[in-house]
Amino acid sequence: MTLARYARVLLALAVAAASLALPAPHADAKKKPVVIEVPPPPPPPPPPVTLSERLIADAANYEAYVQKSGGISPAFIDGPSVAAALRVGSSYEAKSLLRGAVAYGAIAALQDRTFVETVRSYGTTAQNRHELMRQIFSNSGYAVSLKGGASAAGFAKQAIGTGALGLFYSGRKVKQAAYDVQRQPWSKDEVAGRIERLLAVKTLSTTAQTAPADRVLVMRSTVQGLGPLTPPASPANPPYTPLVANAVSLAALAAIGEATEVNLAQTSFLTDEVNTGNCLNMAKLNLYQCLAVSKPHYEDVFCLGQHAMIDTGACLAKFSGAVLPFEAYPRPLKIPPPKAPAKPRPKKRK
Prior knowledge:
- The chain is mainly α and 350 residues long.
- It has 13 helices and no strands.
- It has one domain.
- It has helices at 3-21, 53-70, 79-89, 94-109, 113-122, 126-138, 149-180, 194-204, 213-223, 242-255, 264-272, 279-293, 297-320.
- α4 packs across α7 and α4 (94-109) packs across α10 (242-255).
- The relative contact order is 0.18.
């Protein structure tokens, strides 16, 4: 064995001895724990979309009134047919009808899924829902400013305005019938029990109507997203009428489950405090005055067409922002221009 080879063998043995001299790890040594980060649980979903039963009934009553009154036929055949139509056209209480219009518009606005999903994404906690409610009650235009708000306003405007315009145009046909029906002898007979007829109309104007059960079921299903969908509406551009803005605000509260019976006192701010200039009250007052002086049946037809149908339909259409024909708006008072002073005549010379 050469010296170089002997040196390599010694080096290899030294390395092997050194590796054997290292302390062996203890068998019971604990391994370093692996930390697994668990993401926090997602926030709980907001309560289901809910609207109080009273407001659903008000919406059903509104729809029933505009459909029944808008369906009054101008083909009157006798005095009892006029009296029956007059009962249908006058069977609303102004405040309840207005509350029903707001609720009806809110149910229509809930059909816009983008708006509903946007509102629900902001109301995942009780604190967030409280803040959302504060914003809605402090600013009537807050809800329509959210994503999908303009489209939801379009649904509300379309729902309220369509029935209102139908009532308005049907009233014009009934009003025209007041002149056409005078060719029939019965139309010129005096109405029997004129005072009782007026009292009956006033009673209908202060009596709460019972909502049709079938329409209540449809309204409730629509709130829950199970009802029949109406055709998509065009987005409504600002400015929004108070009625449409309040309807979208009520829809926002319903979307986060804060429009229940428990919160009825709060939501009444949106349904009862709509600035409408007492338009519906004036329509009813004019109806009472018209019937107080009406004697023959054809005059009752005029009162029905003008004040119970045209005036009421015009009020609701204006509240929704629908476009009415020019003659439906009050015409401005025409003031004649001042006359130029007369020029003094020259005196004749004597």
